[in-house]
Structures are given as C-alpha cells and as structure tokens.
Amino acid sequence: MNLILLGPPGAGKGTQAKILEQGHGLKQLSTGDMLRAAKDAGTEIGLKAKAVMDRGELVSDDIVIGIVSERLDMPDVQKGVIFDGFPRTTAQAAALDKLLASKGQKINAVIEMKVDDEALVKRITGRFTCAKCGTGYHEEFAKPKRLGVCDKCGSTEFTRRPDDNEKTVRDRLQVYNKQTAPLVDYYRGQGNLHVIDGMADIADVTREMEAVLRQLKA
Ligand code: ADP
Ligand code: ADP
Ligand code: ZN
Fold first, then answer.
1. What does DSSP assign to residue 59?
2. What stretches of 16-91 adopt beta strand conformation (E)?
3. Which of 190, 16, 22 is nearest to 110 (CA)?
4. What pLDDT score does 218 carry?
5. In this structure, is the dihedral angle defined by the CA atoms of residues 122, 54, 180 and 37, taken in order, positive or negative?
6. Which helix (H) or strand (E) holds 158?
7. Active-site annotation holds for 13
8. Distance between CA 5 and CA 2 in Å, rounded?
9. In sequence order, which residues have a C-beta less than 8 Å from that of residue 83 and are 6 or more positions away?
10. 155 by DSSP, 3-state: which?
11. Cβ neighbours, 10 Å, residue 126
C-alpha cells in the first residue's frame, strides 16, 4: 500500500508518518529529510539544493524525481511507502504515477491534512528535532517527557532547521499554495483524496488517519 501525506509545511506530515510506519509495515519517504542528508553530506545534489532550501523554494523536479526513483528500488520500501513532502508539483505527481506503474503499483490513498496558516507558523517556529535519531518535537505541543532529553534515544542534542523561521515559513506557505495545492484536484480526480482535520491533537489526527486506512483495507 502506498500513501501520500499532502499538506503545507508544519501540517504534521512527518509526525504522523513516523507513527503510521509502526503498525502497517510501511516506510516513510521524506524528500526533505533526503535532501537535508545530501546537504549535510556535501554531495553534488546537496550543494545544489542548499541555497534553494534555505530560501524556502522548491528544489528542481529532476533532482527530486531522481532521488525518489533510486529510493524506490531499495528492498525496504517494497511493502509500501508513506510519501511525506513528495510530490510537490504536478510534474512530480505524474512522474510518481509512472514510476509506481512500472513496478505494478499505485497510490492507494492521498490524505490531505488541513491546518490554518497561523497554526502552521506556530508549529514551525517551535519545531526541533533530536540530532541523533531524528524524532520531532515542539516547544509547546510535543515536549520531550524529560526536559532536554530525547524520549526515544536519550540523546541531549537537538537541532533546528535553518528554514524554520517566520519569514521563510511564510514564503514556503506561498510556494505551497501556488505549486503544491493544485495536487488536491489532481488526486481528487483520481478518486484517491481523503481530507482530514489537521488542527486536532496529534493523537486525534492519528485516529483519523487510521480510520482512512481501515476503510482502504475493508
Ligand atoms: P511537517 O512534516 O508537515 O512539516 P511536522 O510533523 O514536523 O510537520 O510538525 C511540525 C511541528 O508541529 C512539530 O514540531 C510537531 O511536533 C508539531 N505538531 C505536529 N502535529 C501536531 C498537532 N496535531 N498539533 C500540534 N502540534 C503538532
Ligand atoms: P516541510 O514539510 O516543513 O515543508 P520538507 O522537509 O518537506 O519541509 O522540505 C524542506 C525543503 O526541502 C522544501 O522547502 C524544499 O526546498 C525542499 N523539498 C523537499 N521536498 C521537495 C520536493 N518534493 N520538491 C522540491 N523541493 C523539495
Ligand atoms: Zn533521539
């Protein structure tokens, strides 16, 4: 089964993808995480992507489709993928349909997560991540159980993304509305779209997602 979590920056895609990975044998595929890893490793792709990402614009379709295509050939994603932050343009969506079709697969559901702009800004500006295991947190909405210690791995080092500031977030929201929001109609046209209320608490959003998955399996 292949799912897409579609929603603006800060909607909770990464948070929910990591929760859903657990019970369903699916693998999160976050193009943002992959691009940040390339940036940190200083690869050619990383170097090309860095300035674009720091400005909150989109990395070119060719680069992103290339890394997704390589990733989908790996053995750990063959049972199914939760796409997080991909596709972001209609060209990427069309390329993904083609890639999956060549493997006899398809997108089974697209879950659109709706969250108000002001809530998104709050979520993004309070977001931080465990430097060791990548678990996501929020200063107010998802604090570690022990202050300054990662729940999952015990690390005391955390990072913040350079693009998680108010100015860049507002630019990223505009980019989303212009380049990514049209995908809602694309997937509605395919009959795959499920819309959920992303304003609810993390656990309630998970429950809504689980309900969509049950419906698919029924
Ligand atoms: P995305 O992957 O869509 O950019 P994240 O999953 O990283 O979003 O969530 C953005 C921030 O908001 C994180 O700090 C996360 O802990 C927090 N968050 C996620 N879901 C919720 C929610 N339902 N309510 C409040 N805060 C949330
Ligand atoms: P968020 O969910 O907070 O918007 P991501 O981690 O998904 O953040 O993306 C961070 C940045 O990485 C984006 O602003 C963009 O520059 C780049 N990026 C990630 N995924 C894509 C994609 N599918 N196409 C183009 N650029 C992407
Ligand atoms: Zn950790």
1. P
2. 27-30, 81-84
3. 190
4. 77
5. negative
6. strand 158-159
7. yes
8. 10
9. 2, 3, 4, 5, 29, 96
10. coil
11. 17
Task: Report the distance separating Cα 104 and Cα 102, nearest Å.
Answer: 6
Q: Which two tokens stand for residue 19?
A: 């929760």
Is-catalytic flag, 88?
Answer: yes
> Which is nearest to 63 in space by CA: 42, 90, 40, 34?
34
Residue 15 identity (one-letter amino acid): T
Q: What's the rounded Cα separation, in Å, for the pair 64 and 49?
A: 10
Rounded to whole angstroms, the Cα distance separating 172 from 163 reads 9
Predicted confidence at residue 217, as pLDDT, reads 81
Q: For tokens 């398809």, name the residue.
A: 106
Residues contacting 22, CB < 8 A, separation 6+: none
Angle at 11 between CA 147 and CA 132, to 5 degrees: 40
The catalytic position among 36, 88, 122, 123 is: 88
Q: Check if 36 is active-site.
A: no
| Ligand 1 midpoint to CA 208 (Å) | 15
What is the arrangement of strands in the sheet containing 136-138, beginning at the earlier edge strand?
Answer: 136-138, 127-130, 158-159
Which amino acid would we find at residue 73? D
pTM, two decimals, is: 0.97
Measure 182 CA to ligand 1 centroid, in angstroms. 22
With residue 91 as reference, give the H or E element that holds it. Answer: helix 90-101
| Average pLDDT, consecutive stretches of 10 residues, N- to C-terminus, the chain (218 residues) | 97 97 93 96 95 97 97 95 98 98 96 98 98 96 97 98 96 98 98 97 97 90
CA of 140 to the centre of ligand 2 (A): 24
| Residue 109, beta-bridge partner list | 3
